[in-house]
Structure prediction request, 585 residues.
Amino acid sequence: MTALVSLSSPSFAYDLKFRTPGAESGLKSVLEGASLLVQNKDAEGKDGQDVLAAARADYNRIVSTLFAQGYYSGVVSIKIDGREAANIPPLDAPASVTQVTVSVNPGPLFHFSRAEIGPVAPGTDLPEGYAPGQVAQSGVIIDAASKATTKWRDEGHAKAQVAAQDIVANHRANTLSSEIRIAPGPVVTFGKLETSGNQRLRTKRLREIAGFPTGEVYDPKKLDEVQSRLQRTGIFSSVAITEAKTLNPDDSLDVTLAVVEQKKRKIGLGAELNSTDGLGLSGYWLHRNLFGGGERFRIDTGVSGIGGATGGIDYSIGARIDRPATFNPDTNAYVTTALSHKNEDDYDEDAFDIGFGLTRIFNDKLTGDISINYGWSKVTDTSGETIFREVYLPTKLTWDDRDNKMDPTKGFYVQAGVTPFFGLDQTTGTGAQLTGDLRAYKSFGESKRFVLAGRLQLGSVVGADLEETPRDYLFYSGGGGTVRGQPYQSLGVKVLDGGTLATGGTEFVGVQSEARFGITKNIGAVAFYDYGYVSGGGESGSQAGAGLGVRYKTGIGPIRLDVGFPVSGDTGSGAQIYIGIGQAF
Prediction:
C-alpha cells in the first residue's frame, strides 16, 4: 500500500511516500500516526535539517509501534532522495529535499509462547492478553508488570519493583517468551514527614491538616488523602509529595511535602439576569489564612431584583469562617452569620442568623454537614407583622461523583437534608423541613457532545402549622432553580388571611430535564422542560415551562442563556430570559 502526500515549506516542497507492503489497513494507519514525518507534513518553515531529524527519530518510533502491535521481525527503511536516513550524518543534512520514502515491512504477527510473572499479590488483576496464545503486544507486558507492582504497593510493599525480566523472541516460530520476576520487598510503614514551602501557615497546622499517618502500614491511597486535604483548603497553588528513595533501617518510609501558598486574599463578582426578576449582583471577599492556621474567612454580599417586574430589591450580607482539621483531619468547623432583607410580592422580611457547624469529609464523594443556628426574622404582609424566633439544626448528606461540577456530562448528585426547628415564642412553631435533591447525567458518543440531564427536587415541612412556619422553610415554584418559563416564586398557596394572602407551601415536587447538544467545541444548545408542584393548607397547584438555551464554554464554566415559556398553570406571563454561569443544574 502507498500513501502519497505533499509536504511544503517556504523554501522547498517534497513528496512523502509511506509504504507498508503486506500490512493491514488498520496497522498502516497506526504506523502513520506514530511517524513525525507524517505529523509534520503540513508544518511551515521546515528545512532539510528538520526533515532529517524527523526521519532519524521515526526509526525508533515506528519500531516501538510495531512491538506494541505484536510485530517483532519488522524492517524499516527511510530514504531521503534515495539515501538511507540512518546513513546521513546529522551535521550533513541536505539543503533541499525532493522525496522521502518510508517503507515498513511488519513481518509476521507474534504470539506468546510463555507469559509468566511472579510472585503476585492475592487479587492481582493481570491483563487477559498476558497469556500463552495471545498476541504478544509489548504494551501488555508493561501493563502486567505495572499491575503486579501496583498491587504489592497497595498491600504495603512500597518498594515493590521488577527484579528481572527474560523476554526472548523466536523468529522461526513467530513467538515471544516472557518471564517477569517481581521483588515485593518488605511491608513498609510511614516514617517522618518533612515539610517545606509554607510561609504564612504554621508548620504545626500544616501537619494537622495533612493528617500524615506516621507509623501506619504504607498505603498509596493515604498519600492521595493527604494531598486532597491540603488542596481543598484553597491555601495552596501547588502540593507535591515525594517518597524517599530508600527505606529506613526499620523499614519505614520518609516522605517530603512541598507546598506553594496562594495569595492570601481574593475577591469575586457575579451577575445573573432574569427578564422578570431583574438583575442580581453578588460579590465576595476572601482571606485564605486569617490567623495563620488555615482559617478561611469569607464575606458575601448580594443585591437582586434590580429593575425587576415583581417585588422590590432584596439584599444580603453574610460572613463565614472555616477552620480545617478540627478534631481530626477530615472535619472542618465553621461559624456563620448573615443579615438579609427580602421585598417580595406578598411580604417583606428582615432576617438575622448566626450558627456553628461541622463538615465531615468521608471521602472524595461523600460529605456530611450539621450545625446549630439561631434565627430571627420579621415578616410584614397584609395581615400585619409577625416575629419568628427559632433554634434550628440543619443536617445534610451529599454524594457527588459528577465529572465536572460546572458542566457535568456524567455521574450523580444526591443531597438529603433534614432541618429540625424549635420555636422560641408563641408565633413560631416546632417541626422539621425535609429536602431531597437528585441529579443524573448521561453522555453519548466519544466526544460527549450529547448529554441528557435530569433533576428531581422534593420538599416537605412536618410538625408545624403553615402559619407558624418561618418563611424560609416554605416552598415556592417558578424561576431558574425550579421551573424556567414561569416567574420567580410565582406558585405558592393562598391559605392565609382567609385565603387572600399567598405564601409558600409545605410540600414541593420539582422536575427539571435537559437535552444538551454540542454544536462546536465551545458552543452548545439546550432544550429543557421543567415542572413544579406545591401544596399546603389544603390547597395545591402545579406549573410547567419549556424552552431553549445556548451555552458558550469558558475557563470558569459555560455562560448560560435560556429562554423559557409557560406550558401549563395560570402563573405564566410570557417569555422568561435567564443568564448566568454554569449549567442550570
